[in-house]
Request: fold
Amino acid sequence: MPKDYEELIRAIHERYEDMNKSYQRIAVYLTQNPNDVAVNSMNAIAATCGLHASSFVRFAQMLGYKGFKELQAVFQKRLSTAAPGFEARIKALETELSGRGSVGGGAFLHELVLRDIASLQELLSNISAKTIDKAIRRLEAADTIYLLGQLRSAPVVDLLRYILTMLGKRVVLLDASGGLATHMAQAIRRSDLLFAVSFRFYATEVVNIVEQAASRGVPIIALTDSTLSPLAKNATVLFAVPEHHYTFSRSLAAPMCLAQALTVGLAAKLQKAESPRIPVVTEP
Reply:
């Protein structure tokens, strides 16, 4: 039986491939939403996942716990030792969200902004400076940076292409248009870098290109939504930014913020400046 959060997550990863689809859905939810698991009831979590509560009991027992409450206690202990004030901020946001009674454009904006605030706070707490520094070193060392992201991930790689190009890096966007992305990716060398972005439900072409590049020893930075993502196992540097439940579509606030942080860090190294600047296309 896993005794702490880190040990529990390792156990989930080790058994994930052998789990049935229901258990895999539970595993993804637990790894993506540890704070929600700590504070919500089993019935509420089960309803969110679209599963029966008994599945969560059996999942916990499969990992060696007597029941779900014993597993939940691991998440509660993790949350209690989080950064000071973090739990209070999350609860305050949840209270404000639950108190929203009106419906309309202004109310939707209010809800989305609050959820983005919570997402950015979690980003700040969960992404380590060591991982960011490792990614920046990879970006700096790469001869050519190949960018890969489709569907709702496309805006993230578009931003990266713009800033990296303005910083003087050689950049290639593996664009899905024309059906050439897979063929273009065959030109990636070990001295290059593949920066892949994908969230549920993962674009098949993106997953295939990442797997093929990894098999050739190409270094990969992966920005995805879970450590159980199909991109995670092949990542040289992994950024897992959990996807929370939005009323319409995934918010890109946290992924965009992380992409900007990486490029600002790279600019600081390239320009050897504490306050780097991104060159502009046109002069004022």
Notes: The mean pLDDT is 88. The longest strand covers residues 144-149. The longest helix spans residues 105-126.
